[in-house]
Amino acid sequence: MEYVSTRGSAPALNFEAATLAGLASDGGLYVPREWPRFSAEDIAGMAGLPYAALAQRIMQPFVGDCLTPERLLELTTEAYGRFAHNAVTPLKQLDEQQWLLELFHGPTLAFKDVALQLLGLLFEEFLGRGGDPLTIVGATSGDTGSAAIDAVAGRARVDIFMLHPKGRVSDVQRRQMTTVLAPNVHNIAIEGTFDDAQAMVKRMFNDSAMTSRFSIGAVNSINWARLMAQVVYYFAAALQLGAPHRKVAFAVPTGNFGDVFAGYVAAQMGLPIERLIVATNVNDILHRALSTGDYSAGTVTPTAAPSMDIQVSSNFERLLFDVGGRDGAALAAQMAGFEASKAMQLTNQQREGAARLFTSHRADPDQMTQAIRWAWDASGELLDPHTAIGLHAARAAGIDPEVPVVTLATAHPAKFRDAVERATGQRPTLPTRIGDLFEREERLVELPGDYAAIADYIAKHAVARG
Fold first, then answer.
1. What percent of the chain has pLDDT over 70?
2. Do the bridges between strand 294-296 and strand 215-217 make them parallel or antiparallel, or are there none, so unpaired?
3. Under DSSP, is residue 122 helix (H, G, I), strand (E, B) or coil?
4. How many Å apart are CA 435 and CA 453, to the nearest integer?
5. Cα 126 from Cα 213, distance rounded (Å)
6. Which residues 6+ apart lie within 8 Å of 197 measured at CB?
7. How far apart are CA 455 and CA 207, in angstroms?
8. Across residues 272-276, what is the average pLDDT?
9. How far apart are CA 189 and CA 303, in angstroms?
């Protein structure tokens, strides 16, 4: 399997090289040259597989000959052996049509664990074959940071530098990052927003002064391997609900578009998906883009769902590339215009291509609260704010009653205790495995939202090539 850049001019790479590179050298994102495809018979034959075995089956075409099936199964078994639920991503029923896919049973209580536990093992596997040490630079709006740090803390030949917007993540999210005291972990709180942090990370991948000295890698969803791992739980849920003989719809709370793009990949692979419902909060660039074609960044509004407080959705570029005819040069020009003006209009081909599978809904704070309350009153389930936004969209989407609608439950409600308590009167408690979180020592550095300051700090603390 070869990987090509969405902007057309970076060299094609195999899976190992694309995983270690993260962002393409031309500023684009790697995607497979073609989508592997399963037949209905192939998918039916996956029913009943344990999660690790299903993951190996789904991911093997993307991995190619970089890992044998036996080795990939060993890695998936190790990655998902740390989850607190034997099903890894269990389904729960809310009413006759609405379901929850719980993605928060990993070590940091968020869906990012499903991908990042595996990605940490892939880094270790590939770095063990030789080459330079890896300097991971990432930005987080809340959950990616803790999941990535947990996945690579203490691993040989890897340093991680994680940027988060100061004061714009929950106290649980912050502490899950800053209480990991491994020597290869560096937490950086910046003045500004997640979009500011993400822009600095992307800039670093294209800064020759840094890339000539350090092998810089990515754990954000710009890294293809992370998205690949997320494809698996769409298959897992759909199989339990009758696929391939029955279609399923998915509602996905999203800011950076990676989680819902994994659903798009599952559909390209043959999974019968009725609709992918993109759920946003008031930071609604994706809703505007999908409903009107207007992909224009505004000002980030802080909300009770901080992981969605994003105005630039990196992975949306992958969708625009695929539905727009895979014209890298045209997309490079389109994205250059967006990066200069923070505004662009989708082409008719892009809009029509997205509309074949995607719809979108926006939830304001009151609607988010109402969804949390509805789930508690209807089924006794506590939802975090992000999942509640997904559920609001699921119930508003008007999907045929015979089609089950699965909302991706992206975080444990105890990560957002105040918002849940305001909505339901119930204050969720942290699982016992991290119950002492607020007693642990924190370690972080605070820096201005200035690229030069960030680059200088990383240069002083990272291990250089050679």
1. 100
2. unpaired
3. helix
4. 35
5. 20
6. 139, 140, 163, 164, 165, 190, 449
7. 10
8. 98
9. 18
Cα gap 425→90, rounded to integer Å:
26
Distance between CA atoms of residues 167 and 174, nearest Å: 9
Domains in the chain (CATH in brackets) are: 91-107+224-424 (3.40.50.1100)
CA Rg value for the chain: 20
Instruction: Tell me the pLDDT tens digit for each residue of 387-421.
Output: 999 999 999 999 999 999 999 999 999 999 999 99
Residues with Cβ within 8 Å of residue 427, at least 6 apart in sequence: 417, 420, 421
Query: How far is Cα 350 from Cα 370, in angstroms, rounded to an integer?
Result: 34
Give the other-Cβ count within 10 Å of 114's Cβ: 27
Amino acid at 201: V
198: which DSSP letter? H
Q: Is the pTM of this model over 0.85?
A: yes
Helix (H, G, I), strand (E, B) or coil at 84: coil
Helices and strands in the chain: count of H runs, count of E runs: 19, 15
Residue in the block written with tokens 């991706």 = 408
Output the pLDDT for position 220: 81
pLDDT at 143: 82
Within 191-223, residue ranges assigned H as helices are: 194-205, 208-211
Model confidence at 298: pLDDT above 80: yes
DSSP state of 441: P
Provide CB contacts within 8 A for 255, sequence distance 6+.
141, 280, 283, 286, 307, 308, 309, 310, 313
**Residue-wise pLDDT tens digits, 280-293:** 999 999 999 999 99
344: part of which helix (H) or strand (E)?
Answer: strand 343-345
Average pLDDT over residues 237-253: 98
- Show the CA angle centred on residue 194, arms to residues 367 and 16, nearest 5°: 110
User: Hey, which residues are catalytic here?
Assistant: 112
Q: Where are the alpha helices (DSSP H) in 9-50?
A: 15-21, 40-44
Continuous segment of H or E residues that includes residue 230:
helix 224-240
Q: Count CB atoms within 10 A of the CB of residue 295.
A: 22
